[in-house]
């Protein structure tokens, strides 16, 4: 893995190091956030009261789960619509942490369609503060290259994150979809540079995972016609990424549902000698071995269903078969912030209240976890 000095001493980083805009964003963005109204004190236990596995202050949700409510027209619906109303309802339910999935809403909502500006972020921050909500991250877009234009856009994203008071900035995509070690090595190098740049803004850079990220790298054996390796030494893609990125700068958000899908699906690899080797993934063991690398979780639940290719069907939190009580006990609570997510929560025109109803049910079930 590259050391801190390796990253800092590379010609690329010297050439594209902190520029005046980045330094300005890191200072003025945080100052603007601090100048906004202080968050009111949050009622309820903040620690492990009564054996609570997820303290009240850490119960969160990603807004992708209620994206139908955020995006619908408040002038044509009796239900909470747009960021301001949805954040207020989530606060009333009891959520205290928010993860954004972009900053767009219906044009008729307060603030207009696109709040991905300093002014829009200031407005969002005022609504978060009014509800006693802490924004933890955003599933945004991470530069695919290190050009000056891309880095300048990344600096602007960090400026927005600072106004919102985020601790983390990230993406909902895997670092790469490739099966080959060379592509993962290149992704790790790029993320090390971006992670250091994010740290210059006071932020932790994170990637999200899907089950494919826990498949095995093709890193050995006979080459195919294109010269690519066809077999594996048994190293999973995201585990390689962890080992080749700087723990001071690059972090992960484990989607616990997709990690369990990986446990169900990706159970063997073809070794260099052509033999099949069984290897079952243990999500909690990976987190426990590198606990500080996982500041965020997606606490997504699922019902086991062997008729499905993924082995699970998404459900509200606590209504599925993923053993969250055991998982949270095994990984501990000190460094982790679980955001409930359910991709399938929106009910469409036939059940317009469904995603927020599921949000209430999921909060109740998360609150009930004991250990």
Automatic annotation (TrEMBL):
It comes from the Bacteria. Keywords: Carbohydrate metabolism. The keyword Iron does not apply. PROSITE patterns: TAT. InterPro entries: IolE/XylAMocC-like, TAT_signal, Xyl_isomerase-like_sf, Xyl_isomerase-like_TIM-brl. Pfam families: AP_endonuc_2 (PF01261). Residues 88-333 form the Xylose isomerase-like TIM barrel domain. Signal peptide: none annotated. SUPFAM superfamilies: Xylose isomerase-like. PANTHER family: HYDROXYPYRUVATE ISOMERASE, INOSOSE DEHYDRATASE. This is TIM barrel protein.
């Amino acid at each position: 893995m590259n050391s801190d000095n390796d990253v800092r001493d590379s010609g690329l980083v010297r050439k594209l190091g902190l520029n005046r805009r980045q330094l300005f964003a890191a200072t003025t963005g945080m100052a603007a956030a601090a100048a906004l109204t202080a968050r009111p004190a949050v009622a309820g236990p903040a620690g492990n009261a009564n054996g609570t596995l997820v303290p009240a202050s850490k119960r969160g949700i990603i807004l992708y789960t209620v994206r139908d409510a955020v995006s619908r027209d408040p002038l044509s619906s009796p239900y909470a619509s747009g960021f301001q109303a949805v954040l207020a309802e989530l606060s009333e339910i009891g959520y205290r942490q928010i993860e954004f999935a972009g900053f767009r809403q219906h044009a008729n909502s307060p603030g207009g369609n696109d709040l991905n500006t300093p002014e829009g972020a200031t407005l969002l921050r005022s609504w978060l503060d009014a509800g006693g909500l802490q924004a933890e991250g955003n599933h945004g877009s991470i530069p695919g290259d290190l050009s000056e234009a891309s880095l300048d856009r990344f600096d602007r994203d960090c400026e927005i994150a600072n106004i919102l008071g985020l601790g983390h900035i990230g993406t909902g995509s895997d670092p790469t979809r490739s099966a080959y070690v060379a592509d993962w090595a290149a992704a790790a190098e790029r993320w090390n540079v971006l992670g250091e740049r994010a740290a210059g803004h006071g932020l932790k850079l994170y990637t999200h995972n899907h089950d494919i990220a826990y498949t095995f790298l093709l890193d050995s054996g006979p080459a195919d016609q294109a010269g690519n390796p066809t077999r594996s030494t048994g190293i999973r893609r995201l585990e390689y990424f962890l080992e080749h990125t700087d723990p001071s700068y690059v972090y992960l958000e484990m989607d616990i549902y997709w990690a369990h899908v990986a446990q169900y699906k990706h159970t063997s690899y073809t070794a260099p000698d052509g033999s099949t080797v069984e290897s079952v993934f243990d999500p909690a063991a990976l987190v426990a071995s590198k606990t500080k690398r996982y500041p965020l979780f997606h606490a997504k639940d699922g019902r086991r269903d062997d008729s499905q290719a993924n082995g699970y069907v998404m459900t509200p939190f606590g209504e599925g078969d993923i053993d969250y009580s055991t998982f949270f006990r095994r990984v501990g609570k000190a460094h982790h912030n679980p955001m409930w997510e359910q991709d399938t929560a929106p009910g469409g025109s036939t059940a317009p209240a469904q995603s927020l109803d599921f949000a209430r049910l999921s909060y109740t079930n998360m609150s009930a976890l004991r250990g």
